Amino acid sequence: MYLVKLYKHSKILFTIITLYIAGVLYYAAHQREEFPFLLYGMYSLKEVGQPQYVTYAIKVNGEELDYQILPDAKRELITSPVYQVAGSDSTSDVQKIKAWLSKYLADRKQYKSEIEISRVVCSYGPNGKPYVLSKQPITFYGE
Amino acid sequence: MENSSPFNLQYSLKARIVIPVAMVILFIRFMSRALIPQMENIPVLFPQTELFYAWVYKTGIIQFLVSDHWAGAVFDIVMFFSPLAFIITLRRPFIVLFWLLALTYFITYNIVTGHHYHGLIGVLIVTIPFFSKDEKRFNLLWEGARYYMLYVFASAALWKILRGSVFYTDQLSNILKAQQLDLLLQDSDSISGHIASYLIANPQVGHVVLLINVLLQLSFAIGFFTKKYDRLLLVLVVLFTIGNYFVMSIISVEILILAFTLLNWDKVQALADKYMRKQKVTTA
User: Fold this and answer.
1) Does residue B187 sit at the A interface (CB-CB below 8 Å)?
2) Are B193 and B184 in contact (CB under 8 A)?
3) What digits encode the pLDDT tens for the residues B161-176?
4) C-alpha distances in angstroms, A84 versus A55, A80, B45, B117?
5) Phi/psi class of residue A56: alpha, beta or left (left: φ > 0; alpha: ψ in -120 to 50)?
6) Which of B58, B63, B69, B141 has fewest C-beta within 10 Å?
7) Using the beta-carbon criterion (under 8 Å), do A130 and B181 form an inter-chain contact?
8) A34 DSSP 8-state letter
9) Percentage of residues of chain B with pLDDT beyond 70
10) pLDDT of residue B172
C-alpha cells in the first residue's frame, strides 16, 4: 500500500502526505474549499433552472467584444472580474475595472479605448436558445 | 546526470518530456496575454476568504507584482528560463524555483480574477517529484502525483453522487443555460453552440450525457487498486477533455498534464532507446 511504502521510506514525507489527505477530508466534510485542499466537485452542486439569466456585454470603441474568439485565460481574466463587480453595488469597483479594460483592450496604436458594459437579461426558449429580454448599459452619474 | 543508471535515464526522459509540456502551458498563457506584466496593472479588488489566499493577499506581493511592470517582467523571464535551465542541466534548484514562481502566478491569476481556478494545479503537482533525484523518493512522489490525478476525477464523480445532482434530470441542461449563455448569444452556430442548445432543449438526453460523464469519472477510482487499467484511463482522460471542450467549452489541457503519470514509462523509455539507436546507425 502506498502510505505504508511512504512510511517505510520517509517519516517526514509520510506525515506531509497524511496531513494533506486529512486536510482534504476535513474540508470535504465541511463542504468548503481551502487551498491547497482542493475538492474537485466539477459542477456537482444541484443547479436549479432560473426564469432569467444575466450576463454582461462589453463594447470596445462601440464594437461588442466577442468572448468566443478570446483565448481561455484571457477571456477569464476579462469576464470574471467584470461579472463580479458589475453584479455588485460597488460603483468605484466598476469604474476601476472599466478604466483597466480601457487600457487592456486598447488597440496597439491607441493608449485607451472607450468601454461600455451592459447588463444583458435573457430567457430560454423551448428550442434551447436564449433570447434577450433587456440590455442596459451600466452608467453612473457624471458619465 | 552523474551516471546513466536506468533510474537516471528515466528521470531525465520524464523531465525532458513533462517539463516542456508545462512550459507550453505557460507559453499559451503568454500568447493569451494573461501573464503578470501583460495584465496592465489590473486592479486587485477581491478580498480573499480562503486562508492561504488571504495571507498572500495581505503580504502585498500580488499587488506589487501586478502594479510594477518591471518586477512582473523579471518574474516572467525567470519563470520561463528556470524550467529551461532544469531541462538542460537537470539541477534541482531550477525546478524548485520554477515551482515557486508557477505557484505565485497561479495565486496571482486567481486573486485578480476573483475566481479560484484549478487549471494550473496539474503543472504544480506533476513538477513536485522532480525535486528529488533519490530513486525511491522520486518514484513515490510520482506515484503520489498519479493518485492525485485519480483523486481529481473520482472526487468529481463522488461529489455528484453524494450531493444527489447526478439524479436530477435537468442538471446538465440547467448548468448549460448558465455556462453557455455567452456562447449561445454570440456564436450559436458553432458545434458547441448546437450541442448546448440541443441539450438544453432535451434535458433527458442531457441527463444521459451527465450519467456517462459521472461513470467515466468514477471509473478512475479503480486506479487506486491497480495499475492494470492505466492505459484505458489515459484514453478516458482524453475522451473527457474532448467532451468537456465540446459540451462545456472548458479546455482541460492544463490538468491533462497529470495524465503523464498514467503512461507506461518503461515502454516510453524503450521507444526512446530505439529511436536513439536508429539515429546513431543513420549518423554512422
Assistant:
1) yes
2) yes
3) 999 999 999 999 999 9
4) 10, 6, 10, 15
5) beta
6) B58
7) yes
8) B
9) 99
10) 96
Question: Which of A46, A107, A115 is the best mutation test for B, with the most CBs of B within 10 A?
Answer: A46
- Within 8 A by CB and 6+ apart from B145, the residues are B125, B126, B128, B129, B258, B261
Residues of chain B contacting A2 with CB distance shorter than 8 Å: 140, 143-144, 147
Residues B112/B130, Cβ–Cβ less than 8 Å: no
Nearest residue to B95 via CA among B18, B4, B31:
B18
Q: What is the pLDDT of residues A39-89, one digit of tens each?
A: 998 899 999 999 999 999 999 988 899 999 999 999 999 999 998 888 777
Q: Read off the C-alpha cell for A103.
A: 487600457
Find chain A residues with C-beta within 8 A of B120's C-beta: none
Is residue B171 within 8 A of residue A47, CB to CB? The reply is yes
pLDDT tens, position by position, A53-62: 999 999 998 8
pLDDT at residue A109, rounded to an integer = 58
Distance of CA B234 to the CA centre of its chain: 14
Cell reading at A131: 433570447
Q: Is the pTM value of this prediction over 0.90?
A: yes
Say yes or no: B226 contacts chain A, CB-CB below 8 A: no
Pairing of strands A63-64, A115-124: unpaired
| Cβ-nearest to B41 among A44, A100, A130 | A100
Which residues 47-76 of chain B have a CB within 8 Å of chain A? 50-53
Reported ipTM: 0.91
